[in-house]
Queue: 3 jobs
Job 1
Amino acid sequence: MTRIQANLILLATAAIWGAGFVAQDMAMETMGPLWFVGLRFLVAFMVALPLALREHSRVTAPVNHREMLIFVVIGLALFGGATTQQFGLLTTSVTNSSFLTGLYVIIVPVLSVIVLRKIPHWIIWPAAIMAVTGIYYLSGGELASLTTGDLLTIVCACFWATQVLLIGVFAPGSERPMALSAIQFLVCGLGGIVLAIVFEPITWQGFVGAIPEILYAGLFSSGIAFILQIIGQRWTTAPQAAIFLASESLFGALFGAALLGERMGLLGYVGCALLFTSMILVEIVPEMAKSKYRRA
């Protein structure tokens, strides 16, 4: 697979995720966040399981228990991101959620410093200031007006950053990318269902009413899109992957406006523009510097 093909796969992934924000928001009309997270990822697990079994029959090396443990940890990061994002949608808009989730593009390099001891490019710091300014404008010019959902979505971005970082570190050297998909979906699905049974009531009518959203989020946003993410990240660089995946925020805002009629004031649009610009700068500037260095 060429890098261009991999990047196009990641762009398709971002579009599917962007539409998924609408499905996630609509599902909250009939069921709780934990039930939705659990059910969507169990559907995603059923999508990934046949592929993982087929992959297992072709891989000659025995299952590495350390690798399986890593897959579970990635699943826990996915669960943290999915649940905080879903709870956040209770009190924030699809547009806000999609842009604030995209902050993981800036958080990934920061985590690289903490976890991998890699010094970030200088652009990280002005981009971080730009992102904070974007959040300020997205809140209408008053950070005090940020909703609980906005704050939960920022926490969600930290979990997504952890998941993307771990996949970037371990997926390229793994012979079991489909097993990684299946296991992270299973961990997330079981976690959601177990907690939902304890903390959230549900009715048959509520379940039936959310079936279209569960199927879209499970089959496409979770199952197909996360599998495409892992495939794409195996054939492109992490910075380029982050750029294309960050376009999820644009698709989310587009679908939110088209399907839910969401609108915001001028300051909100300025905030979205600053957030998206900061995400792109974090990835493009270091790549341009590398290209210039190689030509020299």
Job 2
Amino acid sequence: MTSVVSAGEQRRFGALVFAGGALGAFLRWAFTVDTGVAGSLWPLLVVNQVGAFAMGLLVGALPFVRDIGRDGSPGRRNRLRVSLGTGLLGGFTSYSAIAAATVQDAGGVLGPVVYIVGTVVLGLGLARAGMWCGERLVPGDGHVEGEDV
């Protein structure tokens, strides 16, 4: 089912993505700088795996989040999805950083291949684990009280 979103709401979504993305990119930068492992790919690997798990957690939990905000307006799930998923986690994780750092820092022929394949496989596993956890955050049958199914 596709919902129609007004131009004003699209602009608000854009602002949420911008704010979340700026925070996520800053957090990635801060983590990779503050680890003290200069020139290492490991901080980036950790960031992307944490991000994969967090994205899975978000995707798994969103269906159980009440869609009506405190002010009575609908669309709370979409606001969370764009601010936390597209924005925060999109800025926090980075495919382009993985690609560039791997080519630059992994060395040799086998190193980059192992790093990229390992990143993707581990990320897929952690995203699925996050979804599993997110789906279980709500006790009971998963039905959000006060909403029709």
Job 3
Amino acid sequence: MDRHLKETQIDSALAYDGHFLKVQRDTVALPNGKAATREYIKHPGAVVILPVFEDGTVLLERQYRYPLERVFIEFPAGKIDAGEDHLACAKRELQEETGYTASDWQHVCTIHNAIAYADEHLEIYLARGLVAGDSQLDEGEFLDVFKAPLEEVLAWVREGKITDVKTVIGTFWLEKILSGNWQLP
């Protein structure tokens, strides 16, 4: 069906091999037969957790992000380890970053947050039945954890106080789910 849009790999080379990210440089045949170069980041994928308390408030983090040199408000999230089950990763990341565990987990959706230059995918999970505990932050990880009403989080998105794409999308999903407009399977 979309054959007229498909690009076909001719050659592939690793342009950069970092600790966390890899950059691939491929030569492709375009649909018109001409050649082009495609550079993109190889990423193992990540999970995003939408932790919701019984009263409807949500659990968020404040974390400094070096590339943009500022603190961002985000939902808990983390990289999927090689061979790791997505749900197991979500449970691990929630506990490590926030100290909370959850008794009820539902997969919300998969998003691709940087399709022009990365193969990264994010698996979004809704977490309910939250129980507080001790966090176990990774070496070199520093963040604050706090609760906020969903209405306030929506206002922060609208005002541009929250710009992190996974948190913006997660907030919109939560609004639809908690209002009853969207049902999860």
